[in-house]
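Holo model, adenosine-5'-triphosphate. Inputs:
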Amino acid sequence: MVVLQNIHKYYEVGANKLHVLKGLDMTIEQGELVSIMGSSGSGKSTLLNILGILDDYDSGTYLLNNTPMKQLSQTKAAYYRNQFIGFVFQSFNLLSFKNAMENVALPLYYQKVPRKQRNKIALEYLDRVGLKEWAEHSPNEMSGGQRQRVAIARALISKPKVILADEPTGALDTKTSEEVMEIFKEVNREEGITVIIVTHENDVAKQTQRIIKLKDGNIIS
Ligand SMILES: Nc1ncnc2c1ncn2[C@@H]1O[C@H](COP(=O)(O)OP(=O)(O)OP(=O)(O)O)[C@@H](O)[C@H]1O
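Output:
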């Protein structure tokens, strides 16, 4: 599903080039639940941005579902993102002026699905994460764990093959983190969605099938 071969990534910093990913190799099969760990600055966000086709890389190969993701036009990149990837962020990234159902329905709004139909589907996904009764509530009225579940429902509504989660439990207490991890495990187990979680929390990583450890732009284990 996700294959990285000899990936190099540099950032231009003034007149200098910062070598951030140094020949990274990684394969993640469809249906895996993995975590990516590493100290601050080891390149986790850089890697996640490449995996999410939000940023390009300088050399190497990234195959997503057997298709190379190098030098795509904006349109093509958006197409592959919508087709394959769901994003979940530490800060939830929900719109406070829209209720939970409308937040979940947002990807379908961009796909021009009519309002009635997209709201009906959004309710099904809210139900999937145990929040059907909260459909009419603003994210402002919800707990951190509930907000993250809304964000997961929003990621699921486009039927992604892969979910990329950047510190999804970073803003949550232990108990709420566990609830959120349960949802990830469930969608992974029941729907075969590949889940890739960047985390610095051992308790979170331990619940995944495989921990990928990054150090100085390379995988060390
Ligand atoms: N847009 C950028 N321009 C220049 N340098 C960058 C840019 N983004 C990241 N870097 C540098 O690249 C290196 C890797 O950063 P990255 O954010 O990928 O690490 P990280 O493992 O996600 O760290 P953290 O856990 O702190 O988020 C760091 O030295 C960082 O300063």
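The mean pLDDT is 94. Residues 11 and 18 are 5 Å apart (CA to CA).
Archived with the compound record.
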